[in-house]
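User: N-sulfoglucosamine sulfohydrolase. Structure?
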Amino acid sequence: MTASDRRPNILLITVDDMDARSPGCFGGPAGLTPHIDALAATGARFPEAHVVAAVCQPSRSAIMTGRYPHRNGAEGFEPIHDGVPVLTDALREAGYALGILGKVTHLAPVERFGWEHARDMAELGQGRDPGRYRAEAAAFLDTAVAADRPWFLMANMHDPHRPFHGSAAEAEKFGDDVGTAIPAPDLVPAVGEHPLPGFLPDLDGVATEYAQYLASVRRCDQVVGAVTAAVREHGGDRDTVVAFLSDNGMAFPFAKANCYLQSTRTPFVLVWPGVTTPGSVHEGDRFTMLDLLPTFCEVAGVPVPDGAGGSSLGPRLRDGAQPEPDRTVVTVFHETSAQGRYEMRCAQDSAHGYIWNAWSDGERQYRAENMHGLSWAAMQDSTDPSVRARREFYLRRAPEELYALRADPHALSDLATDTAHATVLDDYRERLRSWMTETGDPLLDRFEVEVLGRTAS
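Assistant: Predicted structure:
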């Protein structure tokens, strides 16, 4: 089989808990992510792409099934339902070799995905060692190339997930691995060197932890570079489609494990030789990662599995088809890693974001991993009235939130109770109701009764 006859290879790179604006190519600190930036320069950037759920396993399961969590079964950290088709089923039937590096158990049940080469975090320097990733990627590619098979490699980096580089939590969790199995990044930003994201308060503890996070972003970028180097060494840069994204936003308050803009927006890059234009930026092209499965199916020339949602990006990239004007994206949240159930839904476009917090009753308090560490502690200790108000809101929320995203992308000013925005609120309520009806959301009846004031069916 010649290279021109063989189906394209597919490299799916995911990083863990990276804010959409952290890579330099998406407006982040210059020089922090040279390997991600170099990848973006060879393909297309999509600044308004979203994952569907801002926590690891549900986000990844949605990508691999093309289904929202309530339709595939992985609403939290549980396996997908029996009988739900997955991407690797279709690729295996087409002869693809299947490999995964890192986050192996976050697609469950593991055996359902049929990996031929699987290495989890303990074999990869706790998912943070560029050298181990390069070696394991090369080992997988050696076998696939020798067998003259197209390949699919899902390379998952565990950075910049907590614990961040240089933190006390890192030393406590990984002990002697720090500095040995887990190398330090080759660049460590200083505290205060880079501005904080706008959704975080300017406090000393937040600034310290943000610098630690950026150091983990840098090490993550080194791992990305190690994997892409292995691909180049095997000639894959000529016939490989590469997708890069984060599974959700950064693990700070008001980001990961929520439904805010910074919770689900992901730094998505697609390199599709002969289809994407190197260095192009697709502003206004709003979609969710449910579109990734049908895109990969088009790349591989295989049918999209039954029940998968989304649509391939191919037609709009290859044929010049225009994206849906100001498409409404719906994102969800169900459960934290500690199995705390906080049902949320968000309908958003470029103008507004509407969030329904089904869990918020004025009494119950929110708890999640994003509140570990220095940032939340600094917010708790602060006597600044604005920080205290934001902290108290975060704990209990309100049943509904509404934000004017063009003027307020960091969701600082809730307009849900502003009578001047009543018509806008009703519009987005209806958008969410339509989506819940279309996808069979099990909370539809509650939403219609509690929010829309309708009689239960």
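The two ends are 59 Å apart (CA to CA). The chain has two domains: 9-318, 329-450.
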